[in-house]
Protein 1
Amino acid sequence: MMHLIQSNKNDRSTNDVLDWIFYLESKNKICRINNETVIQSISFKISNTEGLSVELSTDQGNINSKEIKKFWYRRGNFKSNKGFTLSMHDTKLKQMIFRIQDNFQRENERMIDNVYSAFEKGGRINRFQENVTNKVHNLSLANDAGLKIPETLVTSNIDELLSFSARYDSIITKDIEFNSFQFTYTEGSEVYIHQPVLKLSKSDIQNLSIQNNGKEFSHFSMYQEYTEKKYELRIFYLKGKFYTMAIFSQANEKTKTDFRNYDNERPNRCVPYQLPKEIEKKLVSFMQSIDMNSGSIDMIYTPEKEYVFLEVNPIGQFQWLSKCCNYDIERQIAFDLLKEEI
């Protein structure tokens, strides 16, 4: 039997957890696969007597789900060495082949889902499917769990945005699902595109309306009331346990709207923090409702002494929180992977 870990090649948090595993129980068999692991073939078996099993042949060796004791999905994805190479000039033939390829891609996605279902049978931390966690849906479920959330609007309609912004001194806009990326534009020139959290005033919204001639935007965006903060909270959640840090970001203009606009020259003060039991209970209810057993939760504490939920990131960085607050989260993950399930 073995412990299976999937991650990115250079993820330092994974390395730290592995160090703890080898220190705690050096005889354990560990299999780590990275984002560069290539699937060469897949074999599924579903038996009335033995249930589901899957065997993968990869460029790093074979993986049999029956041999997996526990699975930790940290990051990454599999690669495939299969694909089409198109060199023909017949447009209709190309379209037909692209449609066939699209069907193969959908089948591949379903089978990858089944691979992870087989991997998780012995117990797991995180899931591959959590890569696409839905921020808007999560806000709704957090509200259902009794957590306070910012008033939120997703729209492409300028009139709705004007009406929404009129109710608040300022609002913010943030991404719903936007992955930052970079590319080379000209020789020696790198372009980096990302979607930061932006604070917008009423005049900013009016100017947007004028620039757009009062028409609908070409794409919808998410807007929220700007909530004043006394401090921000980063909470790492692991199967009902909380490791919480308070971040005093409000004294720095660079980090005031969002502490993730890091100021490396004048870092925010960060200290361990104890959440009220009532808030922990609501967070547990929320995490169970989205079937997520580990993740990094962002909240704020307001001058009015209210806790406001912002979002959860299932595969966010926790190393910073662990080291700042001496939580040894990496050791806790190692303990969970090594312990026997009852």
Protein 2
Amino acid sequence: MNIIDRAIAAFSPERALKRAMMRTQLDRVDQVRAIQTRKQKRRGDSWAVNDPSARPVHSAASAMSVVDRHKLRRIFRFNPFARKMKANLLNNLVAYGITATPTGSKKMQKEWRDWIAAADHDGIQDLYGLQELVTWTMLLDGEVFIVRRAVAGAGHPLRLQVLRVDQLDGAVGGLKVRDGIEWGEDGKPAFYHFRKSIDPMFGQGSERIQAADVIHLFRREEPGQWRGRSHFESVIEGLDDVDDYIEAEGVRKKLESCFAAFVETSIDADPADRGIGDQNGDVDSRSEQPIEALYPGMISYLDQGQTVKFGEPKAAGGFSDFLRWGSLRVAAGGEVTYEGMTGDLSNVNFSSFKAGSNEFETGMGRIQWLTIIPQFCVRVVNWWLEDAFATGRVGSRDLRSPFKHTPPRVKTIDRAGDAKAALLEMQAGIESRRNIIAERGNDHDELMEEIAADRAANVKRGIAFMGDPSTPGDKNASDASQPGADGSADDVSSGGDTTVVV
């Protein structure tokens, strides 16, 4: 107590007690405000600065604002639904990697396989890991830059360095320089200015790199567009709204579980009949603090004019509906299915899930074949061929050999049905075995060699598996093992040796 409180207490203890109670309540309000401030900082400050109605109309040559990028990065780091959507997109766009298979000589194929492991300039990931990194950065920030580097020494010299948009040096001036991009006379980017490091402690200054050595990966959605926009720009608020609503529901449940009692004093009660603790209940004579706990067998006497009321928080309905429709809104904006984003399969059957999956797979294929493969995968292959030819690792004939790009296999939920459909398509001549094998994520020639090697090894060991004919045109082992017209099952013979049918 300060000197003023002590003076008031000397003349009017009751007023001094009220002042102390009010100060305690004000301190509690300050604590609540501090908690809310910390929560707000955890969520990235107020969303008012990111209000879509307050956003300026961006031109085709402008990038996302720094504020939006930072908010999206925070959301996808802490929001569970956002992280599930990220995994869903990457599993279907990249998965284990979009493979590029050279059709040239065996030496060329080996050189390519060896380089895949050494593709990363930072020495952390292989080529397929870089595919995941650049794909996600493009989706999140709207654009990403891949710089061509050359490393002297053993092995293929080409290395790929991935830079995000923050590393563009916007401080570089010039008549045709904007946000670190220098434009040529033809209206296309001619040079890129990158800061040597985002962290100032690793050095200042920028590096000017010609556009031929830079892949600027972004989704082009309108004519004249030269800067990328985030894949999630339309759901910035929606992702946070769903998470906030779930947290608010959790707080409400905690309040419902609280057993709160409130002591009410009648205004007609005589102040002389009330003790010093009547404002908040009985008083512990040792500490002169109100007793606020209830325990079994407790007997408490209330003063005249006091009653007890118990808190009854009212349950708010509509939680499931809001969560479902909020998630549907976010899933639609993120171009994923509701089931893929939430993992909730309670409201689908096989047919509806298959129909939704087909639409989703088509959308993922569109991004793969119209953006990732032509802008990134093909450019990387061309860089590799140029450096491989310049260093004598491939010849002129290999230089003209095409690469076959194969997106990751889409796992089926009806393997037997899909296998029958593939067989009918091959028999009808409307599909090839090579294409069907490629859709499964395998290389046709390698698979054929593996099958031939396995069959040769099986013949040598006297083994025939179900479905393996010993020679082209023979009956399958599975057919031979079935009861014939005489009701017996004949063994499959190969070269006069008895073959065990497995």
Protein 3
Amino acid sequence: MSKLLIFKVGKSKYACNIKDVDRIIKYENLTYVPSKQVSFEGFYNHEGRVIKIFNMSKRLGVEDDTPIKSTNRKIIIVKDGNVLVGIVVDEVLEVFNYGDQNNKIKDNKEKLNTFKDKDKYIDLHYVKDMILLNGEIVIYISITKIIAIELEESDL
């Protein structure tokens, strides 16, 4: 059994393994820099280290027309080895114990193929599973794979 961090991006709920999370901070004090990379949000001074911040809603293609309360918006600092990168999410919800078979959705990859948001399909190569939590679907993603993609595409 592992622990997952549940967060919201747009209208959807996502989860990542808590072991990949260094900490969660307020969405504030970013230094914005122009970039061709749509998902790049800016830089953040994290304990004397300058880290890149990426916008998760832009990466997942799930931007929502509903205005997000800026007080709910958070940056999840993700660690992958010695690399620290931040991702902006609309809201952090809870930590969940993953591994209960009653919460898993069978044939998850087939079901995922039917999901789309604004004519963009979910990119399945970083989706690990789908979880049924309190009657809602939570998409369990590999946050380290997403970070690797962001860094590979980064022009800064």
